[in-house]
Amino acid sequence: MAQNPFDQASRYAAKLDPPGYLDWLFGGPQFTFVDWLDARTLPFPHDPERICDTVAGLKAVGSGVSWAVPVEFNREPDPAMYGRLLIYLGLLWLELRQRGVAGGDPAVGAAVVNLTGRGQTSRGAQHGGLRTQLDVVERNMAHEDAANVLRAIAAGTIARCVLPWVPLMHGADESAILERWQELAGAEADAEKRADYGGLALVFAEAAGRQEIWSEALWRWNMVESQVVNRWKAEAKAEGKAEGKAEGKAEGEASALLRVLRKRFGVDLPADLVAVIEACKDTPLLSRWLDAALDAVSLEAFRQAVESPHRNGA
Q: pLDDT tens digits for 34-80?
């Protein structure tokens, strides 16, 4: 099952340079990155089909203690993440203990990255002799300062792999930020990495509602497209269309379109929009709507595309 493009982009971007990314995430070189741990056998609470492939195996600087730290990415803050992580960290601890990792007494923790909004995952309760506490490293990208981050990248105190995340940050719609971003990304000698920086930046710009300004700024900057981002888009479209193979052609296109919309914008779609899509029997029009669903920055933007006579071929 294909993941939504924001989740895919987050996981891919974190793995471009794990030591550099994790140093930024933790606010400095507090850990040495060892490897991404295999935790595919552990279901994530309330999302059993998702594979958690970003569990970082780390060594604490100074003490050398081994840590297992899942890094979770949310397009918007998840109010249930506190409970989900309590469950997941318990399962992870038991799994690592059974494997004999860290001498049978592993240390576990968690990091949460919210692409938009402000999360409050860390919390606890205490009364008398009872206490439950979960403290996580949490980064709210909308509250990071783009100018400060770019200055630190230029100075070499933050790794260049953080560049793709800049469109999510405060001030990322300013022309000076866009120009500075292009200068720093352009200094990357590896053409493939440079293309990935641009492709990932556009995905994150969409999550932040800044797709138009970043697309306009970058379309001439790097003519080499990110192959991995293009593959995600193709997979999402192909998976949606595959849903309708056993149905009539128009019904299949409608089913594919609704599936893509639910993956991108949530399960609860407006009833009137669902009715319009299900009632449409024009296969070419449904195909154009499917393309619009993959490109739209929000559900409202998709609705406007559906209602536009020009986009509908009128």
A: 999 888 778 788 776 677 789 999 999 999 899 999 999 999 999 99
Domain that holds residue 162: 144-228
Q: What are phi and psi of 116, to 5 degrees?
A: -135, 160
In angstroms, the CA 286 to CA 312 distance is: 9
Give which of 53, 7, 15 is closest to 159, Cα–Cα. 15
Residues facing 206 on adjacent strands:
none
Residues 85 and 162 in one domain: no
- Integer Cα distance of 241 and 221 in angstroms: 33
Structural domains counted in the chain: 3
Q: How far apart are CA 180 and CA 124, in angstroms?
A: 41
Same domain? 43 vs 168? no
User: How, if at all, do strands 111-114 and 107-108 pair?
Assistant: unpaired
Q: Give the H/E segment covering residue 198.
A: helix 191-207
Does residue 188 lie within any of the structural domains?
Answer: yes
Predicted structure pTM score: 0.72
